[in-house]
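Exercise 7. Given the encoded structure of a 252-residue chain, write a plausible sequence.
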C-alpha cells in the first residue's frame, strides 16, 4: 500500500518465502495508498486493495478471492460503524461474500485467538502488522481498549456483536430484495451525475427510501464514505426538491 515502508517489505519477504516453502504460487502488486483523495488512509488502502485483487483474480482466471477476515474483525467493524452512524446495512459489517461470491470470507466464524492457537499447534509463524500498535487509528484503539472492556463486562461480547451483524445482513438482504426492481426506476446516471426521480422516492416509506439512497450511493462509488447522517441529509434534500439548491457530499 505504500504506507509502512521497511515493515511492509519485511512482511512481503515473509509471505513470499512461506509460499515458496509450501509450493504455493505467489504474486504481489503495489498500490499508492499514501496519495490523499479525501478518504482516510485505511479506507483508501481498502479500496485500492480490492481493486488490485479483482485485477489479479480476473487476469489470472480465478473464480474467487478469499480474505482472512475473522470474527473479531467483524465485532470491531460493527462497533466502528455503530458509533460513526449507520443503518441496518452498515451493521451487517463484513459480509461472508461479495459480488456474487467473487470475494469470500471463509474464516469469518473463527476467533483471532483460535487461529493463533492453530498456528502454534502447527508450529507456523505469522507476522503482526506493525501499524496495529498505533492507537491513533480508531480500529486499533477499539481492539486494544474497548473490546477487552466489553468482554470484561459481558463475556462473549464479540461473538454477540458478530451475531448482530448476521441478523442485520439478513434483514438488509430482505429489504434490498424488495427494492431491487424499483432501484432502476428511482434514479439514472447521466450528464455528470445521478438523476433522482423525487416523486418516486417520496412514495417509499422512510426506511425503504433511505436504504435505496444508500444503495444508489454505493453504486456511485461512495459506499465507504456515506454515513447515516449523509443519507438523512440527501433524503431531506430530495424531498424538498427545491430548484437551485446544492448539497455537498464526500469526494465532491
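Solution.
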Amino acid at each position: 500500500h505504500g504506507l509502512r515502508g521497511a515493515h511492509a517489505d519485511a512482511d512481503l519477504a515473509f509471505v513470499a518465502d512461506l509460499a515458496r516453502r509450501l509450493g504455493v504460487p505467489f504474486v504481489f502488486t503495489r498500490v499508492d495508498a499514501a496519495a490523499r483523495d479525501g478518504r482516510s488512509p485505511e479506507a483508501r488502502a481498502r479500496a485500492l486493495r480490492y481493486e488490485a485483487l479483482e485485477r489479479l483474480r480476473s487476469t489470472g482466471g480465478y473464480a474467487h478471492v478469499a480474505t482472512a477476515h475473522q470474527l473479531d474483525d467483524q465485532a470491531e467493524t460493527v462497533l466502528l460503524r455503530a458509533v460513526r452512524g449507520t443503518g441496518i446495512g452498515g451493521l451487517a459489517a463484513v459480509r461472508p461474500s461479495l459480488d456474487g461470491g467473487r470475494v469470500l470470507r471463509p474464516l469469518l466464524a473463527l476467533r483471532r485467538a483460535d487461529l493463533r492457537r492453530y498456528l502454534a499447534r502447527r508450529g507456523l509463524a505469522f507476522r503482526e502488522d506493525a501499524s496495529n500498535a498505533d492507537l491513533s487509528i480508531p480500529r486499533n484503539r477499539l481492539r486494544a481498549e474497548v473490546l477487552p472492556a466489553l468482554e470484561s463486562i459481558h463475556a462473549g461480547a464479540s461473538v454477540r456483536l458478530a451475531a448482530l451483524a448476521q441478523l442485520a445482513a439478513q434483514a438488509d438482504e430482505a429489504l434490498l430484495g424488495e427494492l431491487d426492481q424499483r432501484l432502476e426506476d428511482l434514479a439514472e446516471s447521466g450528464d455528470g451525475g445521478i438523476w433522482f426521480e423525487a416523486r418516486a422516492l417520496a412514495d417509499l416509506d422512510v426506511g425503504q427510501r433511505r436504504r435505496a439512497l444508500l444503495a444508489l450511493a454505493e453504486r456511485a462509488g461512495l459506499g465507504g464514505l456515506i454515513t447515516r447522517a449523509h443519507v438523512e441529509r440527501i433524503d431531506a434534500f430530495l424531498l424538498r426538491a427545491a430548484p437551485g439548491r446544492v448539497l455537498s457530499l464526500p469526494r465532491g
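Remark. The chain is about 55% helix and 5% strand. Students should compare their own answers with the one above.
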